């Protein structure tokens, strides 16, 4: 199969949409569709429903399927849809097959949630999923610094539909080595730590980056992308300085407020409710005021 269109889609801003809730705590379908349209109208070319910014681990099986279906319907070919899947291998396979039946283009495989991860077992886990949906692109979400580039290369040798890697280890030097050991050109390397890490990862091999901030200000994320593509690092760092405090708030206490801050910003803009599900927690009033002040003036 020709996976080149999927590779092109990954070499971009890969948006991770939030999952808004209504007053009863259910997924707010209308608000979700509206937020997706805002991303698409803003120029986003790849979206990941059921990502961590979408509260993947707080959603039920039925809700994850709903979000997948809503995303495919709303995207309608305007953007590639990369569905987050995970949990045990059987559950991930079921989710990947559902994504295929819904019309998605790719699946992103969340880092295995297990206290004991052998490198060969990591390969087997991803191979099981990739082989179950050979028509779809597959993108491992790698947060484990112990997984070596050679392991990723082995996975790619056996599974041609593994087209990219979302790399989210807080170490640009480690990323540079892993990407080269795995195959810098074999995979599309997506900086999985969003805008604050995008310039450093781009300098050593990434050609795309994920973003939760893009929910709030698509133009800001796309401006950074344009600067990086042009090799304009001063321009990229100007955006970095603009968003630094916002992203620092998300990253505090091991990213405790990662989703909370994004939803608070959207609430301040009147785009959805601020509600998040445990173990996340809404911001206190002082935090809400700071987030509102930061995003004031950011245009869509």
UniProtKB/TrEMBL annotation:
Q: Mind telling me which Pfam families this protein's record contains?
A: DHDPS
Q: Which SMART domains does its entry note?
A: DHDPS
Q: Which UniProt keywords are given for this protein, alphabetically ordered?
A: Lyase
Record-stated family: Belongs to the DapA family.
Q: Which InterPro entries match?
A: Aldolase_TIM (IPR013785), DapA-like (IPR002220)
The protein's matches in CDD domains, at most eight in alphabetical order, are given as: DHDPS-like
Xref: PANTHER family: 5-DEHYDRO-4-DEOXYGLUCARATE DEHYDRATASE 2-RELATED, DIHYDRODIPICOLINATE SYNTHASE
Recorded protein name is Dihydrodipicolinate synthase family protein
